[in-house]
Amino acid sequence: MKNYTITVNGKAYDVTVEETGSTASAPAAAKAAAPAPKARPVSNGAAGSIRIEAGAQGKVFKIAAGPGTKVKAGDPVVVLEVMKMETPVVAPKAGTVATIDCKEGDSVDTGALLATMNED
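Below the sequence we write its predicted structure tokens.
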């Protein structure tokens, strides 16, 4: 047996660990359940030629412009929550939103495709 002192949140605990000499590994964890299928992204047909991607890792907070919406350069298309701040992802050019490739609540990585659009 080995004795250890472990400190958790500033409080010390004395712990005794028994050595069994067994080299058996811990039992395998139960197989995780399959994730629920994701909702299909909203689209009006074919993807646009201009990609709108996440500039940072975060969570989709709001879809600001849906498919078929005409936008000007700088108009928000999707709003991400990044480090607890709302960060708009804007249209790089004037055009029409073709697809929204995410949904509110999705977690996205840097560079993830959020939407596509076509230039007017």
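The chain has a mean pLDDT of 83.
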